[in-house]
Amino acid sequence: MNLIITLFFHVYYKISIFYYYLGVFLFLLLDFSIFLLSDLRALYAWVFRFNFTQQIKIIQYKYYIVLICLISPLSITDNHSDEEIRKIYNFRNLAVVGMSRNPGKAAHYVPKYMIEKGYNIIPVNPTASNILNRRTYSRVSDIQSQVDIIDVFRPSEDVYPVIEDSIRKPGIRVIWLQEGIHNIEAEKIALDNNIDIVFNRCIMAEHIRLFEHNE
């Protein structure tokens, strides 16, 4: 049943992407056509007589609407209820695949936040030996200690080998794909091995939403 639901959301995601991009294209085409049909004197005034910096700001605000349209289909995620997500946070041992040494990246400050909330974070990054004073592993399957959740900060196309390696590690309960990450083939092998899948959610944002805002 979980696989059927995941397939449904995957198909819905693809269709949503197509129609949102089509809508944005038609919006821009219409807007540009109206612009070309405008009086040339008004065009001249628009470019040369007004403060150019101000016009750029107007354009930016105007196309924030387009940006929202582009982002909206990416909001599709798994079918977990809030209560089910809350229960996942009862697991305390997280291996973070793709954890970064760069403080400006989500792959650094998200696991740092989880450490501050009392979670045991195990970095997985083959290019580093130590992140946030914690030993770093090249692969999940190399970790000797208990791991409950695999938190993945990798592009969607790189997720399959990560999950393929992760299922070799006994005791994995949940694979959590961060915001913007979704790979249906990889998710299927996890479900086939009785591992729960969360996708297109930020583990920090969900924690703040479900726990911090209720305090």
Topology overview:
Layout: H1 2-37, H2 40-48, H3 52-71, H4 82-88, E1 93-97, H5 106-116, E2 120-124, E3 130-131, E4 134-135, E5 149-152, H6 159-166, E6 174-177, H7 184-192, E7 196-198, H8 203-210
Parallel strand pairs: 1-2, 1-5, 5-6, 6-7
Antiparallel strand pairs: 3-4
Helix pairs in contact: 6-7
Q: Whole-number radius of gyration? A: 22 Å
Instruction: List the total number of helices.
Output: 8
CATH class designation of the largest domain: Alpha Beta
Name the strands of the widest sheet in spatial order.
2-1-5-6-7
End-to-end separation in angstroms reads 35 Å
Count up the domains: 2
Number of strands: 7
- Helicity, as a percent range: 40-55%
* Percent of sequence in beta strands: 5-15%
Summarize the model shown.
This protein has 215 residues and is of the alpha/beta class.
Detailed description of the structure:
The chain is of the alpha/beta class and 215 residues long. It has two domains: 2-75, no CATH class; 82-214, 3-Layer(aba) Sandwich (Rossmann fold), CATH 3.40.50.720. It is built from eight helices and seven strands. It has helices spanning 2-37, 40-48, 52-71, 82-88, 106-116, 159-166, 184-192, 203-210; strands at 93-97, 120-124, 130-131, 134-135, 149-152, 174-177, 196-198. A five-stranded parallel beta sheet has the order 2-1-5-6-7, with helices on both faces. It has a two-stranded antiparallel sheet with strand order 3-4. Strand 6, helix 7 (184-192) and strand 7 form a beta-alpha-beta unit. Helix 6 (159-166) packs parallel to helix 7 (184-192). The longest helix has 36 residues, at 2-37. The radius of gyration is 22 Å and the shape is globular.
